[in-house]
C-alpha cells in the first residue's frame, strides 16, 4: 500500500502507527534513505491494502477505526481534513486494511503461470520481498529466485527440480506467504518469533527450478515445435506425462551436478528420457547452469532441495558433510516425523554437489508418500510436516 509522506513523518512513526516492524518498512522502500523522508514522497507500507468506506448514519471515526482494527490516529492520518465533527453521510473514507490471512492459492495445479501470478500478488503486498532471475529454462522461461530477509546468513530452498514433484512448489509458496504474513504482522509461526529470523537470516527461494517440465506434467505436450514432437518421441508417443521428471530436453536435472557425475551417468539411460538421463556432461542444461551460478555467487550457509516422495531427509554425501549436518537432520526429523538417512545410492544431485564443494549442510527432503505426482489432497499434510523443517532451517 502506498502512502504520501507528510511533514514530520518518519519510518519509525509509520512502524508504530501501522504496527509493522521498522526494517520491513525500510526494506520495502529501497530507493528512499531512512533519514531522508520528505513531504510528498510516496512510501510503501507492507501488509496493507486501501479499502473504501462510505460513511453511514451513526458512524464515528472511532467506530470505523475499531471495525477495521486500526487506530483513530491512523484513520485521520489517512484522510487529512476529516474530523469527527464533520463526518458526512455518503462521504468516502480511505481505510488502511491490514491483511491478516494468506492471499495465494497454492492448492491447485501449480503451473509456471500460476506461480508467477501468486508471486506477483505477494510482491505487490509485501514489497520487502525481492526477486531476480536466476536463469532460463530450455523453452526460455525466466526462473525467479525470491529473497526475504536482512541477515548475512543465507539459507536456500528450492523445489520442482523434478517435474512431476511440483507439489513441492505448492508447499514452498505456502511457506513464503505464511512467513511474509507473520513478518508484517509481527507474529510468530509455531511460537517462533519471525522478526529475529528476518534480521539474522536471508531466505533464498527458487520455488520452481524446472518450469517447462512442470507445465508438461500438468498441461501435456506444448503446442510449440520442436518441443512438442521431441517430448512425445522421448515419451514413446505417450501423451500422458505423469512419470516425467526431466527437463524439456529429457535430462534429469538432479543428475547434472559435478559430484561423482560419471559414476551416476553410467547407471541410467544413455539417451534423453522422461527420467534418470544424466546428459552428456555435468551442467549442460540451462536450469542447472542457473542454479549452479546462483549457488556459486551466493555463499549459502545451508541448502534444502525439496522433492517427493518418501518422507525422508537425506543429509550426507561421501562423508564430506560437516558435523552439524547430523544434528540438523535429527532436528528436521523430530519436527516433521520424517526419517533422517545419511547416504543414498545416487550421486550428482544438487545437495551432493553443495556438500562436496562447500562442506556445508545440504539436504534432500522427500515430501509425502505415494506415487508421483502426489495428489493435491496431500498438500495440507505435506505442508504441516515440512513447515517445521523450513522454520528450523531458518533458525539454523
Ligand atoms: Zn525428485
TrEMBL record:
Cellular component aspect of the GO annotation: extracellular space
Record keyword Glycoprotein present: no
Record-stated family: Belongs to the peptidase M14 family.
InterPro entries noted in UniProt: ENP1_M14_CPD, LysM, LysM_dom_sf, Peptidase_M14
Keywords linked to the UniProt accession: Hydrolase, Metalloprotease, Protease, Zinc
Record-annotated LysM domain positions: 1-45, 51-95
Name of the protein in question: Peptidase M14
Record-linked Gene3D superfamilies: LysM domain (3.10.350.10), Zn peptidases (3.40.630.10)
Gene Ontology biological process terms, A to Z: proteolysis
Species annotation: Paenibacillus oryzae
Active-site residues, as the UniProt record annotates them: 366
Cofactor section: Zn(2+)
Amino acid at each position: 500500500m502506498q502512502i504520501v509522506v507528510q511533514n514530520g513523518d518518519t519510518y519509525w512513526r509509520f512502524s508504530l502507527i501501522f504496527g509493522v516492524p521498522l526494517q520491513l518498512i525500510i526494506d520495502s522502500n529501497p530507493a528512499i534513505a531512512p533519514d531522508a523522508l520528505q513531504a510528498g514522497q510516496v512510501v510503501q507500507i507492507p501488509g496493507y491494502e486501501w479499502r473504501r468506506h462510505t460513511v453511514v448514519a451513526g458512524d464515528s471515526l472511532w467506530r470505523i477505526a475499531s471495525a477495521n482494527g486500526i487506530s483513530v490516529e491512523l484513520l485521520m492520518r489517512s484522510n487529512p481534513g476529516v474530523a469527527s465533527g464533520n463526518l458526512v453521510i455518503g462521504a468516502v473514507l480511505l481505510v488502511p486494511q491490514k491483511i491478516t490471512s494468506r492471499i495465494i492459492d497454492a492448492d491447485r495445479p501449480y503451473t509456471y503461470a500460476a506461480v508467477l501470478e501468486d508471486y506477483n500478488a505477494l510482491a505487490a503486498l509485501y514489497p520487502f520481498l525481492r526477486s531476480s532471475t536466476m536463469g532460463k529454462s530450455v523453452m526460455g522461461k525466466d526462473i525467479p529466485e525470491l529473497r526475504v530477509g536482512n541477515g548475512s546468513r543465507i539459507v536456500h530452498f528450492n523445489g520442482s527440480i523434478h517435474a512431476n514433484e511440483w507439489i513441492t512448489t505448492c508447499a514452498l509458496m505456502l511457506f513464503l506467504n505464511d512467513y511474509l504474513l507473520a513478518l508484517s504482522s509481527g507474529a510468530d509461526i509455531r511460537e517462533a518469533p519471525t522478526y529475529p529470523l528476518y534480521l539474522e537470516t536471508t531466505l533464498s527461494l527458487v520455488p520452481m527450478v524446472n518450469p517447462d517440465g512442470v507445465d508438461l506434467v500438468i498441461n501435456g505436450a506444448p503446442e510449440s515445435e520442436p518441443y512438442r514432437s521431441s517430448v512425445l518421441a522421448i515419451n514413446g508417443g505417450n501423451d500422458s506425462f505423469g512419470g516425467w521428471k526431466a527437463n524439456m530436453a529429457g535430462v534429469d536435472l538432479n543428475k547434472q551436478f559435478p559430484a561423482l557425475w560419471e559414476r551416476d551417468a553410467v547407471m541410467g539411460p544413455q539417451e534423453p528420457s522422461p527420467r534418470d538421463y544424466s546428459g552428456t556432461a555435468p551442467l549442460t542444461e540451462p536450469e542447472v547452469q542457473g542454479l549452479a551460478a546462483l549457488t556459486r555467487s551466493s555463499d549459502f550457509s545451508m541448502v534444502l532441495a525439496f522433492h517427493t516422495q518418501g518422507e525422508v531427509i537425506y543429509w550426507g554425501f561421501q562423508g564430506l558433510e560437516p558435523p552439524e549436518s547430523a544434528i540438523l537432520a535429527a532436528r528436521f526429523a523430530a519436527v516433521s516425523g520424517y526419517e533422517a538417512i545419511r547416504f543414498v545410492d545416487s550421486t550428482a544431485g544438487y545437495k551432493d554437489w553443495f556438500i562436496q564443494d562447500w562442506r556445508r549442510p545440504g539436504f534432500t527432503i522427500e515430501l509425502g508418500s505415494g506415487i508421483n505426482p502426489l495428489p493435491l489432497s496431500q498438500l495440507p499434510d505435506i505442508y504441516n510436516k515440512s513447515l517445521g523443517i523450513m522454520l528450523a532451517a531458518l533458525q539454523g
